[in-house]
Amino acid sequence: MTSGCHARFLVTFDDGPHPNTAAILMQLSHNPIQQNIKAMFFVQTRNPAGGNSSLGRSLLDRECAEGHVLGLHTGTAGHVSHTALSEHELDQSLRNGMDDIRVITRSETMFVRPPYWRFNPDTLTGYSRHGLHMLLSDVKAYDGIDWGLHVFRQWTFHLQLEGIRRRLLRRELPTVDGMIPIVVTFHDTNNYTAGHLSEYFDLLIAESDRVGLQLDSKPFYDCASDITLAALPRTVHPVEAIEAESQPAEVS
User: Which Gene3D superfamilies match (predicted)?
Assistant: First the structure.
């Protein structure tokens, strides 16, 4: 990579909280790669198997207490696509989710990632009404709903990071405080991810080196305020929605 800027990984998780979240938090705090990595968790606040359970609420409290960022995934009782909701239903779900997160963090969440990564101009308008910014991803583990694609994890990381290197050479990615944020997505709900997160981190670094990506000496973001600043320029705005909408949808 010819750019003088180094890259950092902005780690995100979807679909939690989940019983696996505790193991994920432990590995973020203590792993052989970098201690005290911080992440952005896109959470389901009213799912009875997630944030609307006693365990889920305690995990959300723990995420906040340990310095992670909470973004909104769903404010509905189930994992329902935002594009399947009426305008009123979407607005209500966003209000509910934002209210739930505010109770935990004592501040407004700024970020949303739609279920199944499905969105359209109407949902984007709804996000804007509530001051939410939609964050997608540069690198995916493709680990939703316990997919078995961890068998191909090195290959998929390599291909995605090679694509990022080409985008950097074309100067298509923004720089924030001298760093280039690369958004990486995992899922709390995947048992393999929860048990092997440190290995994923190691693979990200190894494959970055193989494709020629220059990483910072701290390759993962480790401060909530830095995550917020790094994420904002990476969010999708309505004028960019057509291009982003052409990307494959996630399964969770």
Answer: Glycoside hydrolase/deacetylase (3.20.20.370)
Roughly what angle, to the nearest 10 degrees, separates helices 153-169 and 191-211? 40
The Cα–Cα gap between 69 and 64 comes to 7
Q: Which amino acid is at 2?
A: T
For position 69, what pLDDT does the model report?
99
The answer to whether residues 125 and 171 touch, using CB atoms and an 8 Å cutoff, is no
| Region of 54 on the Ramachandran plot (φ > 0 left; ψ -120 to 50 alpha; else beta) | alpha
Question: Does the bond joining 233 to the residue before it have cis omega, within 30 degrees of 0?
Answer: no
Tokens 């909408």: give the residue.
245
Question: Cα dist. 42→94, 134, 165, 188 in Å?
Answer: 13, 11, 26, 10
pTM greater than 0.85 (yes/no): yes
C-alpha span between 116 and 180 (Å, rounded): 26
Domains and CATH numbers, the chain: 6-245 (3.20.20.370)
Closest CA to 184 of 171, 200, 166: 200
Q: Is residue 182 within a helix (H) or strand (E), and if so which, with residue range?
A: strand 179-187
Q: 47-101, pLDDT tens digit by residue?
A: 999 999 999 999 999 999 999 999 999 999 999 999 999 999 999 999 999 999 9
